Task: structure prediction
Amino acid sequence: MLSRRIIPCLDVRDGQVVKGVRFRDHVVMGEVVDLALRYRDQGADELVFYDITASPEGRSVDRGWVKRVARVIDIPFCVAGGIRSVDEARAVLYAGADKISVNSPALERPELIDELAAAFGVQCVVVGIDSLADADGEWRVRQYSGDPSRTRALPRRTMDWIVEAQQRGAGEIVLNCMGSDGVRAGYDLSQLVEARGMCQVPLIASGGAGAMEHFRPVFAEADVDGALAASVFHSGAIAIPELKHYLDVQGVAVRL
Amino acid sequence: MSVVLVDAGGTNIGSVRYALQRLGVEASLTADPATIRAADKVILPGVGAAGPGMARLHQLGLVDLMRSLTQPVLGVCLGMQLLCAHSEEGDTECLGLIPAPVRHFPRDAGLPVPHMGWNRLQVERAHPLLAGLSGGEQAYFVHSYAVPLGDYSLATTDYGGPFSAVIARDNFHGMQFHPERSAAVGARLLKNFLDL
Result:
C-alpha cells in the first residue's frame, strides 16, 4: 500500500533557510544542506524548498544550493518559487531536483504547465494553488500570495483550476488553503475533500497543521496523498518520528 | 571498477550519479559505445517518456550495443521499462532484453496516477540484487506505466494490484522505483548491483 507522505516545506533565500513573514523580517535558520539532512534523518518522506530569493531585474536566481542538496540527500525533493520557463525548470531539474512546482507563473500563462509536462513528463510537474473562500462561499485562486502587498484575488474558481491544471499536465497538485494557513487549527477538510473529488493525480494538503491530531483526518477523511507543513516542524512543535508513530497507530499507512 | 551511466537524456542522471558517489563510486556519464562496452557495470537511468527515450538510444546508435552487453546492466525507472519488450506509452518498441510488456495503470481504478510516493517491496524470488532485504521495505516510486508480474519479477509492489518493482533476466536488471531517492533501502540496492 502506498504510504501517505509527510512533507516539510523550507523557505530558502539566497541559499539559506529562513523563517519569518515572507519578504520581510527573515531570520536565518541555517544552511539548506544541514536542514535538509536533519529532516531526512527525522524521516521526512520528501522535502519542498520554496525559493523566495527576489529575482534581480533581468537576472536569474542563483540556485547552486539545489546541486548541493542533491548531492547529499537521498529522498525526493521539489523546488518551488520563481520558475517561469522551461529553461529555468531544466536548470533546477538537471541540478538534481526531482520535481518543480509552479504557482503564480502558471496563472499568468497556463501554457507553462503544458510546456513543462511536454519537456520533462508530468511526474516532474507540480502545480501549487493558493485558495481562499470568498464572501459568496466559493473557493477562488489567489496569485502572488508570497507577497501580501501584491496578492491578487482572481475570478478563477479553485476547483476549475485544479481540473485545468491536470488537463494541461500537472502530475501533482499542492492545495494551499489560505484560510487555514498559519492558524494551526487543522487542515481545511471540506475544501480538500472537494478537491480530492476533482483530482486524479496525487493531491498534497497545505495550510493549517497545528497538532498531530490534524494529520489523521487529512489522510483518513480528505484522502490526500501527502501533507505539507512548515512552522510546526521548524518550531519542534511536532517531531516527525512521533507523528509517524501516531499515524501508524491510527491506522494510516506511513513509512516508519 | 568502472561504472557508466548511459546518457539517454533523463533528468535524474545527476541524482543517480550522486547516489553512486555516496557509495564511493565515481560513475562516468557517457554515450560512447566503446566506453559503455568496456565498463564493468552499466546503468541506464531515465525520467521521461518511452518514445523519446528509445528515439534517443536509436539516435546515439546504442540500441544494438545495449542488446549485446554481457556485464551487469541496471535500468532505473524509465530505464527499466526501456529494457522491456514493448511499452504502451507512445506504442514504443523497446530493447526487448526482458520479455515483459509495459502498461499504463488502470485509469478507472480510482487511484491517483502517477503512482507517486513510498511503497512496500515484496520479495518474490531470492536474488543477489535483493540481498539484505527482508520484504516490507519501502522505496520511492514515480511512474504512470508499470510492468505486470512474470517470471522475471524479483520483487513486487501493490498499487491497485501487484506490479513488478524489480525485474531481472540474465545480466539485465531493472528497478521501477528510484533507488537514488529511496534512502537507506535504495543505497543498499545500488550497492548490491555494484557487487554483482
